[in-house]
Structure formats: C-alpha cells, structure tokens
Specification:
By secondary structure, the protein is an alpha/beta fold. Helices cover 39% and strands 14% of the residues. α5 packs across α6. Bound molecules: adenosine-5'-diphosphate and magnesium ion.
C-alpha cells in the first residue's frame, strides 16, 4: 500500500512544487515506485516533469469527474508516474462543492491504484480550498515547505490549524512530518534566526533545510528534476537526504 505524502502551504512560491518533484525523483532513485499527483491548476509539476499541460487531453480534473486514474497517468523521463493537471482543474472546488462526500474524492481515486506504488506525492495548490482539503483527507503525512523569511510565516498557523481540523474530523491518520525550510541562505543571520524559531513556534519537526541555488531554475526548462540535471549539486544531495528521512 502506498504511503501518501502531501506538500501543502497556501502561500505560493515556497517550493511546494520543486520539493514534490525532486523528492519524488529521489524516491525513484532509491528504488521506490512513485506517483506524483499534481493538484494545482497552474500545472507546474506537470510542466517541470516534461509535459506541456496545454497538450494534454486529460488530467486530474477528469479523475475528479470519475475517469479511471490509470487512463490519465503519464510516464516521465525521471521514472516518476504523473497524474497531470491542466488549467481546467481551476474549476475543481466548484465541481466538488455540490457533491456529497466531497472531501474524499481524491482519497477514493488514489485508493484504486494504491497497490501500484510505494509513494504518492501530492503537490497542492496555493489555497486552502476543497481540493487542498481533499489532499489532506487522502494523505498519511504532510510536509509544509516554508521560505526562511519572517513574512513567509504568515498563514502557517492557520495551515496547522486546518491540518488539525482535518485530522480530528475526517482523517485521523494524518500527521505533520515536518516543516521543510526552503530557498535557504545560511549566510544571512536573518535566515538562521527564522530557522531556529520554527521548531519552538510551531512545535513540529523542522526538516533539514534546502539551500537556495540557481540549479533549481534550470531543471524545469528541460522537464527533468535537479537529480537528473545536476546530480551532484547540493540541492540534489539535500533532496536525497529528505527522501531518506521520509522513508525512515
Ligand atoms: N532551493 C531553491 N533555490 C532556488 N530557487 C528555488 C529553490 N526552490 C524553488 N525555487 C524556485 O522558486 C520558485 C517557486 O518554487 P515553486 O516550487 O514553484 O513554489 P510553489 O509550488 O510553492 O509555488 C520557482 O521559480 C523555483 O524554481
Ligand atoms: Mg506549486
């Protein structure tokens, strides 16, 4: 049975997608069977893994409407299976709002392929709407990527409260694996101070930070993870370490 891990933060630009893609690639490198689930209408994970969302005829939205997940999943050069997103996923909250059992549509769809994978990594959209609640309702664990700047904190308290509500009301299995500090620049005192404050403030594990690097800007242009484009880079090493941590 696959373990389901969501990367969530309603703030954009905190490296949810980058972390989903590179963690997924690192898990594949470690011999795991991985499905990456793109639940963001901006479809950045889909694009980062080499598929142009505009060329696709089907995506996650079709799965929400009842299409078999196996009919939509794509292969990628990194060896990750991908449930792609297209722009039509922007209508997901509206589609789901009128359904009964609306929080469980993603969970039930993923369950149909749970034996095909060791991991399902969900890249969430920057919102706390119904589609993100679906991701949290499906997940065993959630990682909260967070940029190490004071302003990036805004909203994390609310996210942790939402996760606690989901756990209490609809998904008792759910737990926060940790906060993942991203875009980290250890040379600045400010970033260090923010990093040291995270654990005491939110009372969750703080995972090893991912260092800011230009390598991350290059990889999506060729549709590969940084593990493929810069296998020896610090970022690749750090995401491999994260994969080891989540497999523990
Ligand atoms: N460690 C890093 N170093 C430098 N740039 C990064 C790093 N991680 C992510 N980025 C860049 O930051 C931007 C936002 O990342 P992204 O993963 O799209 O965030 P989100 O999914 O949370 O919106 C992207 O341009 C990405 O390439
Ligand atoms: Mg994203």
């Amino acid at each position: 049975m696959a373990r389901i891990l969501a990367l969530a933060n309603q703030k954009g630009g905190v490296a949810k997608t980058t972390s989903a893609v590179n963690l997924a690639a690192a898990l594949v490198e470690a011999g795991q069977r991985v499905l990456l689930v793109d639940l963001d209408a901006q479809a950045c994970a889909t694009f980062c893994l080499g598929w142009d969302p505009e060329d696709l005829e089907r995506g996650a939205m079709d799965v929400l409407r009842g299409t078999e997940i196996r009919e939509v999943v794509l292969k990628t050069a990194d060896g990750i299976d991908l449930l792609p997103a297209r722009i039509d996923l922007a209508g997901a909250d509206q589609l789901l709002a009128s359904r009964s059992g609306r929080e469980f549509v993603v969970r039930d769809a993923l369950a149909t392929v749970a034996n095909d994978y060791d991991w399902m990594i969900i890249d969430c959209s920057p919102s706390l709407g119904i589609i993100t609640i679906n991701a949290l309702a499906a997940a065993d664990e959630v990682i909260i990527p967070l940029q190490c700047e004071t302003l990036s904190h805004r909203g994390v308290g609310q996210l942790i409260e939402t996760i606690a509500d989901v756990k209490r009301l609809i998904n008792p299995r759910l737990r926060v694996l940790g906060i993942l500090p991203t875009l980290y620049d250890g040379r600045t005192a400010h970033a260090k101070a923010v990093l040291n404050d995270l654990g005491p403030r939110y009372k969750v594990e703080v995972l090893a930070p991912i260092t800011r690097s230009i390598r991350f800007a290059e990889a999506p242009a060729v549709g590969r993870s940084i593990l493929a484009t810069s296998p020896k880079s610090k970022g690749a090493v750090e995401y491999r370490a994260l994969a080891q941590r989540v497999m523990r």
